[in-house]
Amino acid sequence: MNMGAIGQMSCNPAMGGIAKGQIVREIDALGGYSGVVSDRSMIQFRMLNRSKGPAMWSPRTQNDRARFAEEWRLTLERTPNVHFWQDSVVELVTESSSSGASSGETAHPRVVGVRTALGSTIRCRSVVLTSGTFMNGVMHIGDRKMGGGRAGEKASHGITEQLVRLGFESGRMKTGTPPRVDGRSIDYSVLEEQPGDSAPGKFSFLPSSVPPATQLSCWITYTNTAVHDVLRSGFDRSPMYNGAIAGTGPRYCPSIEDKITRFEDRDHHQIFVEPEGWQTVETYINGFSTSLPEDVQVKALRLIPGFGDVRIFRPGYAVEYDYFPPTQLKHSLETKLVDGLFFAGQINGTTGYEEAACQGLMAGINAHQLIGGKEPFVLGRDEAYIGVLIDDLITKGTEEPYRMFTSRAEFRLMLRQDNADLRLTPKGFQLGLADEHRMRRVESKRRWLGDLTTHMRSTSVSSEAANEILVPRGTTAVNQKVRLYDLLLRPQISFSDLVVFAHSDDPDISNPALPQLGNHAMHGMNVDPLLRQETIEQLEIGAKYGGYLEKEREAAERVVRLENLLIDPDLEYRKLGALSMEARQKLDVFRPTTLGQASRISGVSPSDISVLLVYLSR
């Protein structure tokens, strides 16, 4: 609708975070651009949850909002076969198709193009709808409301109504954004500083993107009871409380109004003060999302420590928009009702840049697969967070904006952010997304990791030498020869502690700042410093969490066996009297394609799965 808004960050100027960082790494591993663009526009990098196990480590960048959009535009324009047309789609062009329709059934429509507001008709064989918050979008600030999907941008109309006529179920959701303020009016001396990591990382596994030489800090402050009292005084003019907003808001990113209502016992809430870029004083007030009137927002903000004289650039607001319950989709993100039509992003009830990005990538891949006559590309729950997200949406649906968390993944120790390239780049390479350079890099990493692991398993040191390392670090001494790999199993010991046992005269691997072990393990391999560090980190994780990883793999294999048990899509569940009534109703609506998918549908019990298993075995 507006080419000047390509890549615009509608909400906070950041990418990644808990579980979201894993998704960005997975997008990058498959060959997507999100990680590279985030790296090129970052102003700060932090690896969250370092104090917890590696399954919880989550990368996050603070980004320069303007550079982020600029990098996206430049990256897209450099991509062959990507073309642009600024316009608004107002209608899908469909045709009836008899394929798959049996006698007496209504012909199944398929999409063959789109019509735009300017009157153009664009013919095609697949369409991906990524409508964000724009379909029938309405913005709210206090008792004022206006049409629009984002500040300064109009809403999109027409598509929802057509989709409903085609048989789709629709709903309303809402999301919000906080006020932006003038950073020059903030007293940072009373705020807590939150600097980036001293040794910043990055998202992309490619060496071409590098962290910035310097970083900008974020800051932390807190609300208080006086702030809460002022906010409550405006509730009668809040669209959330006077019925003006009917849509459901995000549970895990609530507005400040929601926070003080749901957590009445809390006398303060954390506020993150985030810079918007290198060349601007505009500042994002994370944690203060609101749709209260401007005068209430200003009065409440000025009672927050450090904000006594704060000036607002623009107030916070809420936006309400149409979405379509994702149970109406296949796992490829193609709709069940219209062939060739795919949904991705907030149209499916999700919230967040990262959740939308991975859906867009998967829908794009599968639109290509479809028109090329190829099998859909579907990631399993044991293969990627992307697979978990899509499976959750398709099998469980969502009645509130869906956000990814590490707790949603059963196999999160296998699906770490550090090994996304090993898991997914071979798949991206087969699809034609990941290039040969990226694939060779992954192959080198896998080979070097295997060689180094073998070397450490086969190399032993005396008890005297080992104890010189063990005892000072407070771990139990040994009384016999011990393998280097067994030393690494101990939580107090890291790979760098074992450098003293390295003996190398190879100039490529003798740099003491990059600890190496075993000439033969790395002989002839030109591994860059970043790749070395990544490999060493994975070696340590594999050693320390090997037992847990093996249990997860066994559990994943059991799940895969269920996933491989296909269910006839035309199975008449109502005739299976041994199933519970709820299971028959839910299965008839969701039409799972495998027993594994059936097991994750809310209302389908383990005993129902047993009944299906017996039926399938017959």
Structure at a glance:
The chain contains 19 helices and 20 strands. The chain has 618 residues and is of the alpha+beta class.
Summarize the topology.
Layout: E1 14-16, H1 20-30, H2 34-40, E2 42-48, E3 58-63, H3 65-77, E4 89-97, E5 108-116, E6 121-123, E7 127-129, E8 138-141, E9 144-147, H4 159-165, E10 171-177, E11 180-182, E12 192-194, E13 218-222, H5 225-233, H6 256-262, E14 270-275, E15 282-286, H7 294-301, E16 312-314, E17 317-323, E18 341-343, H8 353-371, H9 385-396, H10 420-431, H11 436-458, E19 460-461, H12 463-470, E20 482-483, H13 484-488, H14 519-522, H15 529-544, H16 546-563, H17 581-590, H18 595-599, H19 606-617
Parallel strand pairs: 7-18
Antiparallel strand pairs: 1-3, 2-3, 4-5, 5-6, 8-9, 8-17, 10-17, 11-15, 11-16, 12-13, 13-14, 14-15, 19-20
Helix pairs in contact: 1-8, 1-10, 5-7, 10-11, 11-15
The structural class is: alpha+beta
Extract low-pLDDT stretches. Answer: 100-104, 504-525
> What is the CATH first-level class name of the domain at 436-548?
Mainly Alpha
Number of helices: 19
Q: What does the main sheet amount to?
A: 6 strands, antiparallel
User: Which CATH architecture of the domain at 436-548 is right?
Assistant: Orthogonal Bundle
Distance between the termini: 54 Å
Average pLDDT value? 90
**Integer-rounded radius of gyration:** 27 Å
At the fold tier of CATH, the topology name of the domain at 436-548 is Arc Repressor Mutant, subunit A
CATH superfamily of the domain at 436-548: tRNA uridine 5-carboxymethylaminomethyl modification enzyme MnmG/GidA
What is the strand arrangement across the widest sheet?
A: 12-13-14-15-11-16
Number of strands: 20
Helix fraction?
25-40%
- What does the overall shape look like? globular
Strand % is 15-25%
